[in-house]
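Work Package 3 (structural annotation) set out to generate three-dimensional models for the target panel prioritized at the project kickoff. During this period the team completed the workflow that converts sequence records into discrete structure tokens, so that structures can be stored uniformly alongside our sequence database. As a representative example, we reproduce one entry of 405 residues exactly as it appears in the project archive.
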Amino acid sequence: MREKLIISLTSVATVLSLATAGYYIADSLSGKNTTLAQNLRVIGFCPTLPPVSTTSPSPAASGSTGAAGVTGATGAKGDTGGKGATGATGATGATGVTGATGTKGDTGATGATGVAGANGATGATGATGATGATGAAGAPGLCTGMVALTAITGDMIPAVDNQYTLGTSSFRWKGLQLGPGTLYIQDTVTGAQAGLTVTDGSLLIDGADSLRIGNVRLTATGLRSVLSNQDITIGAVGDTGWLSVAHGIKFSDGTTIITASGVTGGTGPQGPAGATGATGAQGPAGPTGATGPRGADGNAGGPLSVSYPRPEKLDLSNQVFGLENGTYILPDGEEGQLVYFTITDSADITRIHLTVSHLRYTHGSDVRTEADEPWTPFDVNLSPITMVSAVFTHGAWNISGGKTH
């Protein structure tokens, strides 16, 4: 009895050992998270287990096996008789009760095989028991680093290419410290390796032709947008800093801008003529103009045509303009055209202003030509004057006096 008990305990220990190994193998393959499998893991790393396969259906629960049919009693064995002639095979009789084993006689002739008895009926399948409720999920386990990585003296190379992940969204590494070297990443389209290196304060991306943020790409030759119709904005609304250009600006047609001084926009299309205003009251007669230059035929010229315009665009069919307080526009004239400007008795020289379409004047030692330039014709620093002249040459008016802005 004691020996049987020892044998039974030994068998139980063997079964438990095999079951433990079986649990670990099954949990590792199925991805289950049992306490036994967790205790058998290597502490320090949390490998990602393969997901549970959903392609094979779960085996159906089997019912209990029905009871086997009753075996009939074995008949008593009679004494072995002498070997006689083989007679005809008679019908197989019912099996009698098995008797005590007698003395072994001579082997008789093999009798004919009897008819097999009918099989017993299969018992009904038992009902499947109800499934128990699922237990509450346990708290997430901690993944503590117990492996001494400082003992590594060689390269860390995975056993399979492009399969394992370093860290997860739940268990992350706090920092990544790299020494002088290169961080490589593979292009998802071309498969080429791009290397990130820091050299003398510059971040180098070797193997990539551009850096993209949103729709804006920084390339080796400039800044561009992935969308051809999208504007590229430099700065933001409210900024007070300037866009500093080291040399100049070059356009697609090859033209360049080195300085903004003297740059004028193109002349826009002329608007429709406005309605004619009401005729104002006739002003007093002006003084007689100076005698014009003698004509080519030797005859003396007549008096110059004098105009006292209202604040509007000057009519260049006149040669002398008597100006009152107001603002006037002097359009471009014809090459070599000469006009004179005088002041009326009631005018204030500081309140007479002309806007010249194109004006040429001196600024220090420089000669400048400006478009739509304001001009106060009778205002000077020392003593005011009452008459100035302007000659139109080479696309601009040249003035004899006055003050520009």
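Residues 2-30 form the longest helix (29 residues).
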